[in-house]
Design goal:
- By secondary structure, this protein is of the alpha+beta class.
- The chain folds into 3 domains: 104 residues, no CATH class; 129 residues, Jelly Rolls (Sandwich), CATH 2.60.120; 73 residues, Phage tail protein beta-alpha-beta fold, CATH 3.55.50.30.
- The protein is built from 9 helices and 18 strands.
- Strands 1, 2, 3, 4, 5, 6, 7, 8, 9, 10, 11, 12 and 13 form a 13-stranded mixed beta sheet that branches. Strands 15-18-17 form a 3-stranded mixed beta sheet, with helices on one face. A two-stranded antiparallel sheet has the order 14-16.
- The radius of gyration is 21 Å and the shape is globular.
- The two termini are 38 Å apart.
- The N terminus is likely disordered.
């Protein structure tokens, strides 16, 4: 089996940077500026992408930092102990087995899920109670129905939920869980997207009650039809109006309305195997339109024909970069 390492050599600097990001994520939630910096860092070079894939593998295996390192870092947020911990963590990342097949398997939580989709694939399900679930690209869910509840556990990705009335005499609540919280449908149609530290919820019909996973005494939030929000395990974001882009993916489209090119590329990359990155010089270029997500090459051609950008490919098309024309 060919390995990713045979194409992209391990880079010690990238491993140390990945270790630093892993530690920072373990210490707490990033602010918006830090999150944007982290998201760009992950795809800025093939070496950094591979280093972060190893960090994800470590998270999957251990659920986070190794306990001995976590104690060193969290007890001493700066100084020699932190640097030693970072060095040890970088060594662990370098030692992880990373064949191409095993990297793709471990990078995703999909392998053991009840239902899943590959990158670029969508799937519709009708559940035992008549409720319908549409899975977007690279999505994994578990379906847990018993005498007390109807639970959908969203492991990763994005779903559209259309609930049905329960067929049992004693109606069971319809619930969707992510790492950040538990949502209860109140006769509704809604989308849920699970990210690394936040969940995005948009309610199209009815209402959804949201309880945070680390809420303390925080009261549940009711999100009504036409509203959207995002939340972490500890706090809710503001409510804002739902726009047509929220569910456009169910029609095979990606909507852009004066959207930054860098943000558009992040969304487009979800539907294409490999890496798509945007050169910083055109990151703030604003684009608008409706673009097909099932034909990502066609979408890239539309961008080249409409805007002052060019697309260059590396690693047999696995790695694409949008640059100034």
């Amino acid at each position: 089996m060919s390995t990713l390492r045979s194409d992209i050599q391990l880079d010690q600097q990238a491993l140390e940077e990945a270790a630093e990001w892993l530690i920072r994520l373990g210490e707490g939630e990033l602010d918006e500026t830090e999150r944007a910096e982290w998201e760009y860092w992950k795809v800025s070079t093939p070496e950094r992408h591979q280093a972060w894939a190893r960090a994800q593998m470590l998270q999957t295996k251990l659920g986070g930092l190794p306990p001995s390192l976590a104690l060193s870092v969290l007890d001493r947020p700066s100084g020699p102990a932190r640097r030693v911990a970072m060095g040890k963590l970088a060594m662990i990342l370098a030692a992880l087995p990373m064949g191409w097949g095993s990297w793709k398997l471990v990078e995703s939580q999909q392998w053991s899920a009840d239902y899943r989709t590959a990158v670029g694939q969508q799937r519709e399900l009708t559940l035992a109670d008549g409720s319908r679930i549409t899975l977007n690209t690279d999505t994994a869910i578990d379906v847990l129905f018993d005498a007390n509840q109807r639970l959908i556990r969203l492991r990763e990705g994005e779903i559209l939920v259309q609930t049905a009335a329960d067929r049992l005499p004693r109606a069971r609540p319809f619930l969707v869980s992510t790492r950040q919280g538990l949502m209860q449908a109140l006769g509704t149609r809604f989308t849920v997207r699970e990210l690394s530290t936040r969940t995005h919820l948009a309610v199209l019909e009815g209402a959804v009650s949201v309880r945070l996973s680390d809420a303390g005494r925080t009261a549940p939030l009711i999100v009504n039809a036409g509203e959207r929000t995002d939340f972490s395990s500890r706090s809710f974001g503001p409510l804002s109006p739902v726009d047509r882009s929220v569910s456009a993916w169910t029609q095979g489209m990606l909507m852009a309305d004066n959207l930054r090119l860098a943000d558009f590329v992040v969304e487009l990359a979800r539907y294409r195997s490999g890496i798509v990155r945007c050169h910083p010089a055109i990151a703030d270029l604003r684009i608008s339109g409706a673009f097909p997500i099932r034909e990502t090459q066609r979408t890239l051609n539309m961008l080249v024909q409409t805007y002052p950008v060019i697309v260059t490919g590396h690693l047999s098309g696995y790695w694409l970069t949008l640059s100034p024309a």
